Amino acid sequence: MEHTLNQLLDISKLAGAEILKFYDQDPGTVLKDDASPLTLADLAAHRTICDELMRLFPEIPICSEEGMENGELEMSGRYWLVDPLDGTKEFLKKTGSFTVNIALIENGLPICGVIYAPATGIGYLGGKDVEACRIEPDGTRTKIQSSAPAEPPRFVASRDHAGPEVKRLLAAFPTSQSLSIGSSLKFCLVAEGSADAYLRDVPTMEWDTGAAHAILHAAGGHLLTWPDLKPLTYGKADFRNPSLITLGTESFAQTIATAVGESPKV
Ligand SMILES: Nc1ncnc2c1ncn2[C@@H]1O[C@H](COP(=O)(O)O)[C@@H](OP(=O)(O)O)[C@H]1O
Ligand SMILES: [Mg+2]
After folding, report:
1. Measured from the CA of 86, which atom of ligand 1 is nearest?
2. InterPro entries of this UniProt entry (predicted)?
């Protein structure tokens, strides 16, 4: 699996190079049916990833965000789950918080994943039998591990997508720190122990979370549905996730649920 993850990292870097070709020129933005932006960078990254995955792993089907326009496909068994450019809005704003995401799903669970941030050259990978690590632009790898909550806790939130539950959370922990960034990098902050929790009460799609979920799990962290605190599974209708909470340690979920007035887990 380690070899596969290195291949996925190489593919992510190729896709990242395609994305950066559009960083300083008109990326040809159009709006999708759900009013979210789609650019030539998303499409170029999608093509690169699909071409490489099909070349190297012809037997494994691919579910990529940009291949799902008709929304008819259902995925099961073993497949690649790809978000070629997560954080398209951040890409357009040139904040640097955008990522390439590739995960392998088996029977509804993410087995391994790679996240690569083209603007910084930093990558993350991890899987079932592979320690989670952060990869610097020069290739140096550092093992990452999620951590027990700090006092006061450190929260991370979406820059573009934070709803009323996030506001309740911040009100319940008035001394907490809150860092706001775009894309799947939020999960990486929890995975590497730089943040304690990430509550997401605005919808995400399965391709937004697959790679991050695998890395987070390999780093000792947890991704649960909110507020019922159940495991998140893949292959759902329309690829839609419910509200989510990401944690460095599982018990912190209960602390947060109680603090914001949600019923304790039964
Ligand atoms: N109403 C909605 N329904 C489904 N997904 C949504 C959504 N609003 C935002 N998202 C998801 O949130 C992601 C961006 O989150 P963030 O702002 O935290 O980076 C988007 O990823 P893309 O940029 O890949 O489209 C998109 O998939
Ligand atoms: Mg996305």
Report:
1. 24
2. CysQ, CysQ/Inositol_MonoPase, Inositol_monoP_metal-BS, Inositol_monophosphatase-like
Structural tokens at position 245: 């909470």
Is residue 215 within a helix (H) or strand (E), and if so which, with residue range? helix 206-218
Query: Which ligand ends up closest to the CA of 97?
Result: 1
Task: Tell which atom from ligand 1 comes closest to the C-alpha of 159.
Answer: 17
Is ipTM over 0.90?
yes
Q: Which fold has domain 154-259?
A: D-Maltodextrin-Binding Protein; domain 2 (3.40.190)
Q: Is 120 annotated as a binding residue?
A: no
∠ CA 253-257-263 to the nearest 5 degrees?
125
Options 3.30.540.10, 3.40.50.970, 2.60.120.260, 1.10.579.10; CATH of 2-143 = 3.30.540.10
Read off the pLDDT band of 72 (50, 70, 90): low
Residue 70 scores a pLDDT above 80: no
